[in-house]
Structure formats: structure tokens, C-alpha cells
UniProtKB/TrEMBL annotation:
It is an enzyme of class 4 (lyase). It comes from the Bacteria. [4Fe-4S] cluster 2 binds at residues 254, 257, 271. The gene is moaA. It comes from Shewanella corallii. Monomer and homodimer. This is GTP 3',8-cyclase.
Amino acid sequence: MSLLQDDFGRKFQYLRMSVTDVCNFKCSYCLPDGYRPDGKPKFLNLNEIENLISAFAKVGTRKVRITGGEPTLRKDFTDIVRLVADHQDIRTVATTTNGYRLAQHAKEWYDAGLRRINVSVDSLDPRMFYQITGENKFDEVMRGIDAALEAGFERVKVNAVLLKDLNDKDLPAFLNWIKGTPIDLRFIELMETGLGHDYFKAHHLAGADIRAQLLQSGWSKDISSSEDGPAQNFSHPDYQGRIGLIMPYEQNFCASCNRLRVSAKGKLHLCLFTESGVDLRDLLQSPEQQGELIERLHQQLHNKKETHYLHQGVTGVTQHLASIGG
Ligand SMILES: Nc1nc2c(ncn2[C@@H]2O[C@H](COP(=O)(O)OP(=O)(O)OP(=O)(O)O)[C@@H](O)[C@H]2O)c(=O)[nH]1
Ligand SMILES: C[S@@+](CC[C@H](N)C(=O)[O-])C[C@H]1O[C@@H](n2cnc3c(N)ncnc32)[C@H](O)[C@@H]1O
Ligand code: SF4
Ligand code: SF4
């Protein structure tokens, strides 16, 4: 069975699968007014997820990241993890979470097969954390990170979106934290989304400034591996943690794109900022549809563009990243 590849020679072994659009936080760059349901949404069920994962695995997917909204709000989140992890061809199961349920469930999720976890922490100052996320849950989330480190996850990453005039003074505190803690810190440049034009204008901060500061203070850029995707990683001999930068406005950012996305309602998104999703759900109803589903995936990959068009302010169908899992 041929592997998923686009017309620019990029290969896709990494699927980001959203399992819900619902979220309990109100991050100011994502869902500032909180989650607003549009009718009664029906997200992919376990059967559909099983058929989706089996088809993607057949054409080379080896890593699956479960995203949302807040993926851990799904009552069957542990079952989803187990289902994906039990698939013989899937080597890595990861999730990205706001961390609010992590302290109680880290061990349970690890036991179900989850191996990597990314937790969003936009500030180490609890008041700023509250201001950015709309939730007073800083201590709870930090306890969750401790629980994840204890549970034995292969990798614990912390995501912080860089925000001018909000968390832009936090670099020293973050560096101090990862000096003795084996955390991969990931700074993400704010990206413009359909609903976030004014916020973007007010708060976008280039990751290149952080890169310059790191290089000046003894950090060095790691050699990129195909696993890194579009991130640039840095390490320092005196620090246990590492730092990654996601800088989507830099030239050639998309050359190393290695990921595809499926929304919680079963639409394939060839890019985070694609103009439209392609429905797969009609072909997720039975394992017998696998051949047809795979054919649709191959066909669609010819439509994947070389890059996003964020520089021109084109944000595609993505109103906010909670709708596709970032
Ligand atoms: N433009 C763009 N942004 C991305 C891409 N991948 C991740 N991001 C951004 O980075 C955020 C954090 O991603 P995570 O879900 O933590 O995953 P990651 O760190 O990219 O993924 P891994 O490489 O699996 O660790 C996403 O929500 C996006 O905002 C990408 O392919 N393109
Ligand atoms: C959409 S959330 C979904 C998972 C989970 N709710 C969480 O916050 O980790 C995934 C990531 O997207 C990031 N994100 C959301 N909106 C963004 C934006 N406009 N620009 C850059 N990153 C964004 C968040 O900080 C988070 O790390
Ligand atoms: S970034 Fe994650 S936690 Fe914050 S509002 Fe968006 S989906 Fe929810
Ligand atoms: S912006 Fe689109 S093409 Fe570029 S790396 Fe992200 S998903 Fe891939």
C-alpha cells in the first residue's frame, strides 16, 4: 500500500486527530467567549475512530496526536487512547491538553498507552495565567505536569503562545523552571485565525526575538530530525529541559510539514489553514470501506498546497484553533 505523500515530496506519518470542539477554558487567543455549541454536535465515535486509524495506519501513519477543543473532556478519552495505542502499527500516541484533568488521570492515561503529552501553560505567573486562559487553574495544571513526569511519559512538553504585552516578560521564569526539570518547552508564535484579527494585531510577537536571546546565552540549535516537523529545537548543556520554537511566519516553515489533521466531525484538513475540510465520515462507517477511504486520502493529497497564506492574512476556514486542534 503506498504511503501518503504530496506533490512536493513531503511524507505524512503523523495524524492530528481532534475528538471534540468543546473546551472548558476561554483562552483569549482561541475561545475568548468560551465554547459556543452549534446545535448538538456529534463527534466521531469509537467505531469511526477505529476505522479512521486503521486506514491511516495502512498508508503509513505511525504517530497520532489526540487534540480538541479539550480532548480530555470526552468521557471516553481513556478508551480512545487505548484504541489508538492498541493498533499494532501506531508507535506513538500523544495528546495536547490544557491540563485541568491531568493530576488525577496521568497514570490512567499512561496505562492506556499514552506516551507523550503536551500541556498548555501560557504563563508561570498565576495571575497572568488567569488573565490569558480565563481560568484560575494554574496550580492544578502544574500539579498535573508533576503527575505526568512521575507517571513516566516519554516526553512532557509545555506549550506557551508568545503574546506581546502579556507573557513577553516570562522567558527568565520559564528558563529557570526547565534548568532542573526535563521539560520540552515550546514557544508558539500567535497565528491569525478568522475570529482573531484584532487580537493578532495587538499581541503577535516574533519567535525570532526569543531565538536571538537563546543563541546569545549559550543555547544551540539541534540538528532537525524528520520527527520535529516544522519546529526548531534548542538545547543547553546546563539545562535539563529543551526549547522548541514554532514560527509559522518564517520562510520555509512549511517545507518540513509532516502532519495531516482530521476534525472532530471527520473532516480531513490538509493544512491548519486550509480553505475547506474534506468529509471522510461517510467512509468511516464500516471496515469494508477502507479501500475507498484510502483512495480518497491519496486523491486529496494532490490538493495540499506548498505553504499557508498567513502572510497575506488568509486564514482559511479556521475560525479558531479549537475547531481543528491546532
Ligand atoms: N502553522 C502550524 N502550526 C502548528 C503546526 N503544528 C503545530 N502547530 C502549532 O503548535 C501548537 C502546539 O502543537 P502541539 O499540539 O503541542 O503539537 P506539536 O508540538 O506541534 O507536535 P509534536 O511535534 O507532535 O510535538 C499547535 O496547536 C499549533 O498552534 C503546523 O503544522 N503548522
Ligand atoms: C487548540 S489547543 C487544543 C488542545 C488543548 N485544549 C490545549 O489548549 O492544549 C492546542 C494548542 O493550540 C494553541 N493555540 C490556540 N490558538 C492559537 C493561536 N491563535 N496561535 C497559536 N497557537 C494557538 C494553544 O495554545 C494550544 O497549545
Ligand atoms: S487553547 Fe485549548 S484550552 Fe485554550 S481555549 Fe483553545 S482549545 Fe481551549
Ligand atoms: S501551516 Fe499548513 S502546510 Fe504549513 S506546516 Fe502547518 S499544516 Fe503544514
